[in-house]
UniProtKB/TrEMBL annotation:
Ribosome maturation factor RimM PRC barrel domain ranges (all copies): 97-142
InterPro entries (UniProt xref): PRC_barrel-like_sf (IPR011033), PRC_RimM (IPR056792), RimM (IPR011961), RimM_N (IPR002676), RimM_N_sf (IPR036976), Transl_B-barrel_sf (IPR009000)
Species whose genome carries this gene: Sphingomonas chungangi
Keyword set, alphabetical order: Chaperone, Cytoplasm, Ribosome biogenesis, rRNA processing
Organism classification: Bacteria, Pseudomonadati, Pseudomonadota, Alphaproteobacteria, Sphingomonadales
Self-association state and partner proteins as the record states: Binds ribosomal protein uS19.
Similarity section: Belongs to the RimM family.
GO biological process, any: rRNA processing
Name the UniProt record assigns to this protein: Ribosome maturation factor RimM
């Protein structure tokens, strides 16, 4: 895959305020947000002071957010880090963000479209591919999901389905 070290990867999204002291409720896209003390929040950086499990995700406190109004103003904000700050991956591992936008080719080399989403429903990831005509279809990442066809293979420059 192309060098994506400068790409920002979203780890959480603010879904609202929690309490009156400036805490926020988060929808998490990572298992360990606490390992990232500085998060890109659009035009500014937020310093993570604490994070704990909460309703429908987590509750976090940022050094720069001290009251409910400031916390509520963050609703909808995506919190991201540079791709380069994520841990290295082992063989056959990938980050969902690395696949978005990648070309998808058939096993015979035919262009099928591009990856537009990666979904995790617990039994394994599904990759959503958009054809040039705008139609979309799903392909399982791992074997054993027979209803959807054979699993995909991830290469350096493209996804094969």
């Amino acid at each position: 895959m192309p060098d994506q070290s400068e790409k920002l990867v979203t780890l959480a999204a603010v879904i609202g305020a929690h309490g009156i002291a400036g805490e926020v409720r988060l929808k998490l896209f990572t298992d360990d947000l606490a390992r990232y003390p500085a998060l890109n929040a659009g035009e500014r950086t937020l310093t993570l002071k604490s994070v704990r499990p909460g309703p429908n995700g987590a509750v976090a406190r940022f050094a720069e957010v001290t009251d409910r109004n400031a916390a509520e103003a963050l609703r909808g904000t995506q919190l991201a880090v540079p791709r380069a700050s994520l841990p290295d991956l082992g063989d056959d591992e990938y980050y969902h963000a690395d696949l978005i936008g990648e070309a998808c080719l058939s096993t015979t080399g035919e262009a099928l479209g591009k990856v537009v989403d990666v979904m995790d429903y617990g039994a394994g990831d599904l990759i959503e591919i958009e054809r040039p005509d705008g139609r979309r279809f799903l392909v399982p990442v791992k074997a054993g999901v027979d209803d959807l066809g054979p699993p995909i293979r991830i290469h350096e420059e493209f996804v094969e389905a």
